[in-house]
Batch of 2 targets.
Target 1
Amino acid sequence: MDEVSATAKLVITAAVAVVAITALLLFFTAPASSGGGQHTTTVPHNTSTTASTTTVRPTNYTFQIALREYSINPKALSVYSGARVTLKIFNAGSMVHDLLVAGTTVDVSNIQPMQNASVTFTAPAPGTYLIYDNIGNDTRLGMVANLTVN
């Protein structure tokens, strides 16, 4: 019984070590970003005579957006046209805020202080789109950011 118990402990310890090493590798090899964004992965394709690479465009983006008087962070987002984009919004300010993306149907209204909101949409045609707060003078006072679609 002691041999089985010792073997089981060894197997569990080895499994935990593999999980920990895998997590560390994923953490240290993941692309750096501020809350999500554009990720490009290069995948090698080897044949017997040549080697080449293909750039894979991401199809899903998730961004963490912070609203406060009078700023939207991050200031710039970049995605590919046609990709699915999720904005996870947190109103870190003390006033109610909105978040709109000009030229799109994205309109998240009345986000209360210290509350979360979320919106998912398909990235529009290539171009630069203004992200802004439409309440009062918030846009003029600096509550703006840009969405660049490639």
Target 2
Amino acid sequence: MARRRPGAGEAGTRGARRKAEGSEQAGGAFQEVWQWVRRIPRGRVMTYGQISELLGRTLSPAAVGWAMNGCPDNVPWQRVVNAKGGCSTDTTGKLPGGLQQAMLEDEGVEFGADGTLDLERYRYRPRTTRSQPRSGPGKSRRRGTSREC
């Protein structure tokens, strides 16, 4: 059995990688990430940091990326971009270069010559500012202003 570093939670990148490897069985925070991503309409995007904020920072933006790396087929992964409006999937080597951009362009998203999209134009801003798990009645939801990610 692999030893875990004391205090290392599943919210970190290392824990997120382990969760992504078994994505169909992944629970908790990863399921919440995927629920948020499923809400993003065609032609709109959210950033890794924005999703992290919606989750109350229970996952770092990097851990959100790991959640997306192992997401189920019914999650529109292409709609999550980096804080600059770029496609981070091109750097993973796991997907053909330009695939995410092409998929977003098919949805009507336009990219500049530098390979980034205009976040002011295409960012999806859900009405709620914090995640409220569907299966957690009785859990309170903190309200507050969310900074842009």
